[in-house]
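Hi C.,

You asked whether I'd gotten around to modeling the 420-residue construct. I have! Everything is below, sequence then structure, no commentary in between.
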Amino acid sequence: KVSGYDKTETPLTKKLTQEGITVHYTDTIESIDMQATLVVYTPAIPAQHEGFVFYKNNGYKLHKRSEVLGWITASMFNICVAGTHGKTTTSAMIAHILRDSGYGCNAFLGGVTSNYQTNYWSHKNAVAVAEADEYDRSFLRLQPDIAVLTSMDPDHLDIYGNEKNMQDAFIAFTGKIRKNGVLIHSKGLPRESELQAPVTLSYSIGKNAADFVAEDIRIENGSYRFNVKSKHTTLSNLTLHMGGAHNIANITAAVAVALQVGIEEDKIKKAVESFKGVKRRFEHILRNDAKVFIDDYAHHPQELTALIQGARELYPAKKITVVFQPHLYSRTKDLAAGFSGALDLADEVLLLPIYPARELPMEGVSSQMIMDGMQQKATIVEKENLLDAIRQLQTDVLITAGAGDIDALVEPIKKILANA
């Protein structure tokens, strides 16, 4: 019997309920399962959570999710994807190529794949593709045979204190790579010379020299066509039906992994073309002649920048409106200037109040901080008034972005736009 807690109801928790899992949304001792034999928790659960405190004080077996993932994958050949951003999409791409090609793998992903409508699957082949999360140093419990490192931009400074400490954790992660293992990393990372691995390979897009390079990139009918070149081979005319130049970098990393485990080139090309993306990662919710609606999990300035630039690249002549829900007071405080700069790339911006997740409010920290730093005009809208604001919009491309509960509004927004 499986039960669980979340702060708010989401499309994901509704699906879990449909599958027979009991989900509660109130932090009370009355709502928890007293018969639980194993309690698994994530860093999103605050230390003062009543259910958590009860389990802790009454002798229940408590383990972090990262610990459990470490146990499950300990005896497998592990492909682990780390990075401040890009890890969910890249791990989903790798898992899809391995599954679609017939190679087979177990997948532990941070997002729901559009191809399979799930973030997890199992396979008899003892190979695991796992997203390696840097928050709370969780990824140091994993033992990669192949590690992918997509980015090392500052984030989670509430945990790390400063950028150097965060980089130290990523370097420590590369030190977890097993004997005879391989590190595949984005070219140009900070402190690149300190990355540790028996074998190190790099990837990049465009003119940057690396072991795997995506080149001759063009846009055809809203999709990307490009080649991936390495020392030993060139995969020509790959097609990716997913927006954002950052996703060409992600698929290049995935192709590098697939070549590393010996998957045939024609199977890789076929799998890349059939990849439909990940829910809430540059996800086209609506696309017709009049309107485009994209939903994305972007919650960091770099991700927002890549998202808006990706939309601009696909829809250069259209007006772009972004609805952004900041995630965490600490992140907003630390990265406010970055958010302001990223949102200035849009033509119009609606800001929702900060989604607190695990945090208590911080004095003086609000969405106003982001708005004050912007050159463009922005508007702060309460969540309950957002649908009315959407009805008033005159725009061509609407983007909703954030890691909070903004996804609960995606379907209602889609209805408004479809009937506009």
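If it helps when you're writing up: The chain has 13 helices and 20 strands.

Thanks,
B.
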